[in-house]
């Protein structure tokens, strides 16, 4: 099997890599985090209009580059290398992925805005009681004439402070964790009845608790597909964060390797100590396994649902364990300064820790994998 990337995909990677090298060094990122909005909107605009990066996963008919999950892998890996705080995952992967799959007037209206950088999505799916079970939600969508009325509370909604639109899971029927009745809605973030409580996350992003109180949405806000659509979008997002972890993990390994060449103890660089050489080798092996499992899971996103979900869970379980190993060993090698805000390693460690559990930690995905593959 030929696992090499195409010339177009290599150009995408090179273009984004050069741009980020010039504009997203660690000190610049720290200054972005200190801004009131927690980011530099000019970077997002440049990704859209100057580089065309936001068009990568969309078809040529939609104004995109004709890409898909592999293009998302490339972009997310490069963003992970600089632990970028741009909402590419929420907007292009999740919002764009849902619109591509659903089609219709809503997709025709919003995808050009995503490509142009004017539309930013936030994925409002998690609830205080639900965690990783996508069907365990209490937010409701009551039919009201031709439209719906939403009520509920969504927790830790990444990128919500920046979002123009929210992608919201809500129940039109059923209860508990029943799959039936769970639907996906596109909601204008400025709709009456939508309120937020914003806060920074430990890994440098911005998130919100989002509350819906009698929020009226039109009938076309409902994207067809129900839980099948939601699970497909989340599986694609899961592999995208694995790719981000791939980039961040490799970069943290390189930072740790460089540190062992500079830090001296007993009159020599600590990188000469055999125990640390073994540790760095093990970190590199884990980073390579992250890359392999991420590519494997991404290539299987177009399989039938049960096979796709099993492949994604197998990949995420291994990636989560590997990223924990890389992060913890990097901090142990650096010592106390490894978790300070002044050192880049601490920021990478925090992001890897969040990726480890994002869309489900290793144990949760192993349980899902077993349920999908073992006889009942």
Describe the structure in your own words.
The protein starts with 6 loop residues before the first helix and ends with a helix. It is 52% helix and 16% strand. The chain contains 11 helices and 10 strands. It has 376 residues and is an alpha+beta fold. It has helices at residues 7-23, 26-34, 41-50, 69-81, 88-102, 104-116, 226-262, 274-299, 305-334, 344-357, 362-373, and strands spanning 121-124, 140-144, 147-158, 165-171, 182-188, 194-200, 206-217, 222-223, 264-265, 268-269. β6 and β7 form a beta hairpin. The chain folds into 3 domains: 7-86 and 102-118, Acyl-CoA dehydrogenase/oxidase, N-terminal domain (Butyryl-Coa Dehydrogenase, subunit A, domain 1, Orthogonal Bundle); 123-224, Butyryl-CoA Dehydrogenase, subunit A, domain 2, CATH 2.40.110.10; 227-373, Butyryl-CoA Dehydrogenase, subunit A, domain 3 (Up-down Bundle), CATH 1.20.140.
Please supply descriptive tags for the structure shown above.
4-stranded antiparallel sheet; 3 domains; 10 strands; 376 residues; Butyryl-CoA Dehydrogenase, subunit A, domain 2; 11 helices; alpha+beta
